[in-house]
User: Fold this.
Amino acid sequence: MKTPIFDFVKDYAESNASRLHMPGHKGKSFLGCEKYDITEIDGADVLYNASGIIKESEENAASLFGTSATYYSTEGSTLCIKAMLSLVCAGKSERPLILAARNVHKAFIYAGALLDFEVKWIYAKSSSHLCSCPLTADEVEKQILGCNRTPDAVYITSPDYLGNTADIKGIATVCERHSIPLLVDNAHGAYLGFLEKSLHPIHLGATMCCDSAHKTLPVLTGGAYLHISEKGKEFIPHAEDCLSLHASTSPSYLIMQSLDLCNAYLAEGYREKLKATAKKVAELKNSLGELSFEASVSEPLKLTLSPLSYGYTGNATADYLFKNGISCEFADIDFVVLMFTPENTDDDFARVLEALSGIEKKESIRFSPLSLPREDEGRLTLRQAVFAESEWIATERAEGRICASPTVSCPPAVPVTVSGEVITKEAVEIFKAYNIDKIKVVK
Ligand SMILES: Cc1ncc(COP(=O)(O)O)c(C=O)c1O
Assistant:
């Protein structure tokens, strides 16, 4: 597979040209990578008005991912989420309506504030965790039928931060029956299309999705894709404009080179490497199961431990692992999440097993799950709340106040209380459990 962006920048870096253009480092070494950090010079193409090397590279990605069109983002899935929501909101004569599973990343909330769409939230019957919203296709259909008008899109997050995946195929069938685009936040699942049996949202029937390449593929932080399927062809002519609406005009060529090189990585032996890694993760889960460590069912590259039954909180387990040279992706009271890719060594796997084998099993911790706040309608719209006059107050004093900004940093960046909703007593408990001691509320 060709790597046109990488090749162009390499040739330019080796050409020893006098750089009388941005950036100001002029290719001199401060961090070490500056000679490859260029801007949109002649021949380097223009992201979001691509017709040269970027277009060629994006087309390579589209053919690898099996999409009708794929666009690069150097500003993460965050940018792609805003762009795909802009695409479904554009050209509507009334205020757009999005039917969304409640476990959205905060990028969705900010998109709602900027685009002023109305949201109808779908809550899961069974979930007790902020990050999860397990839905059946029937539930989604019931919610569609319960709307007072046809939603402009259904929006789900799959996989979620804990590695749970949704029934995208079933939900896509429902959406198709009602002629509604299905948008999937697949930030955690860029690799899913390369499994023996693809689990990528585009192959399961989604209209559009975002993938954070940087989360699971060997791509620099910030690299992501906006994918559009055959079903979403009508959105293709407007995609670059909708990305531009939210993006910087100075995209990182370091990240674009990384996305470009990733095409070659994916084309050359990745499927086999992925299969072997998924097998190692499954074996690790089995070995931990033999030690009576509970690992949740999750997508193949995540190991999500529920250590309460072993006598430890997720946070305590993550601290212990850190002291043993293992840095986890995410931990809270209930869970610890570890993410693997083919770039992890056998030593990494062995270290996790060895460290966890060394923990003494204790009496299980009984912890009543924090019940998630549920509000069918906010007091204010997302836009009104996010742009309202607001103030920071101590979490203990927030009950009864209206939430202004989402106030949950990454990870998991899933809002406890949605902007515009009243902060309940239960929500205060969850904020505290995530060590959030200040909340931005409407004045
Ligand atoms: C579910 C989910 N969606 C979207 C994002 C945003 O992705 P990015 O960091 O690539 O902008 C994240 C980030 O962690 C996420 O967990």
